[in-house]
């Protein structure tokens, strides 16, 4: 069983910064990719950033140059530093562990529930103009 717990969301004005954290527990060794997604009510889930076991990183075009994903394997933690936030970044942000084939598909926008993989409960980020 795997458990993911996010923290660090909140409210900030446009141009501000927030840092999200995700701590994993349980049997996480089967998943080669870790990442962040976001979702607003009535919209599809959207990939934000992910990192694989070779430390290759992918970012969504909308966040390139503003967001940075990192990890601390010793703490089983995944982070997302968000700078120069914009109102359109407002969303619920979710941490996820997936196999890399599934992560790639999800990041490309395919909306499905992988048989494997895990999601956190989400943390809200609100950016006001």
Report on this structure.
- The chain contains one helix and eleven strands.
- It is mainly beta.
- The strands form two sheets. Strands 2, 4, 5, 6, 9, 10 and 11 form a seven-stranded mixed beta sheet that branches.
- Strand 7 (67-72) and strand 8 (77-82) form a beta hairpin.
- The longest helix is centred in the last third of the chain and has 8 residues, at 100-107.
- The mean pLDDT is 95.
Poorly predicted regions? none
Cα-based radius of gyration, to the nearest Å: 14 Å
Q: Quote the average pLDDT.
A: 95
Largest sheet features: 7 strands, mixed
Number of helices: 1
Number of DSSP strand runs: 11
Global shape: globular
Terminal CA distance: 40 Å
Backbone structural class: mainly beta
Helical percentage:
under 10%
Strand content: over 45%
Helix-strand string: EEEEEEEEEHEE
Entry summary:
By secondary structure, this protein is mainly beta. The protein is 6% helix and 50% strand.
Task: For the structure shown, list the relevant keywords.
7-stranded mixed β-sheet, 11 strands, mainly beta, 129 residues, globular
Write the layout of secondary structure elements.
Elements: E1 2-7, E2 10-13, E3 18-26, E4 33-39, E5 46-52, E6 57-59, E7 67-72, E8 77-82, E9 91-98, H1 100-107, E10 118-119, E11 123-128
Parallel strand pairs: 2-11
Antiparallel strand pairs: 1-3, 3-8, 4-5, 4-9, 5-6, 7-8, 9-10, 9-11
């Amino acid at each position: 069983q795997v458990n993911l717990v996010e923290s660090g969301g909140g409210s900030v004005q446009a141009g501000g910064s927030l840092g999200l954290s995700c701590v994993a527990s349980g049997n996480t060794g089967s998943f080669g990719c870790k990442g962040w997604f976001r979702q607003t009510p009535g919209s599809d889930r959207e990939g934000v950033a992910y990192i694989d076991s070779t430390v290759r990183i992918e970012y969504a075009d909308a966040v390139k140059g503003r967001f940075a994903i990192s990890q601390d394997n010793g703490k089983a933690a995944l982070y997302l530093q968000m700078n120069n936030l914009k109102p359109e970044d407002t969303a619920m942000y979710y941490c996820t562990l997936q196999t890399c084939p599934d992560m790639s598909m999800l990041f490309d926008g395919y909306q499905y529930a992988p048989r494997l993989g895990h999601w956190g409960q989400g943390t809200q980020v609100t950016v006001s103009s």
